[in-house]
Specification:
Layout: H1 9-17, H2 22-34, H3 36-54, H4 63-74, H5 85-109, E1 113-117, E2 123-126, E3 132-135, E4 140-144, E5 150-151
Antiparallel strand pairs: 1-4, 2-3, 4-5
Helix pairs in contact: 1-3, 2-3
């Protein structure tokens, strides 16, 4: 509201509150006399100020009573169980170790898979166990040698 031709709202607030000095009062009165819209703006500020004085405060907190409620809850029964941070950390570390161990065992015990694919000609393939297979054009073979034999 501090554009040219406008009165700063802080000055209008001081004026309607009766806190403006003589030069500020004179400045506001001259501003209101310059233009009817200025006079309406000053009147609007005055109505808002008067309305705010008529309304009681909406909320009056009872700080002492609120503090007594908080203090009584803080001093409460104390039935809560405290779990030391160190115990929680120990359990989390154990869970992380077991998870890591599981994946490490799986990685090291996994059987290697051999993959073969024949593009446009017959492809003779010799597998690690010594057996041989001939793939037809466009076919694939995945072999995992272990206790059970499964080919795809």
């Amino acid at each position: 509201m501090d554009e040219p031709g406008n009165m700063p709202s802080e000055l209008l607030a001081r004026y309607v509150a009766g806190e403006a000095d003589a030069s500020e009062r004179d400045r506001v009165q001259r501003w209101a006399a310059e233009d009817p819209t200025h006079a309406r703006e000053l009147e609007r500020f005055q109505r808002i100020w008067d309305w705010s004085e008529e309304r009681p405060a909406a909320f009056e907190p009872d700080v002492d009573r609120a503090w007594q409620r908080v203090a009584s809850r803080m001093a409460g029964s104390g039935d809560g169980r405290v779990i030391p941070f160190r115990t929680v950390t120990r359990w989390l570390a154990a869970a992380a170790m077991l998870t890591g161990l599981f994946f490490a065992v799986r990685y090291f015990l996994a059987r290697p898979v051999e993959r073969f694919a024949a593009a446009d000609t017959h492809l003779p393939v010799e597998l690690a166990d010594g057996s041989s297979v001939t793939l037809s054009p466009g076919s694939r073979l995945e072999v995992s040698l272990g206790n059970t034999r499964r080919t795809e």
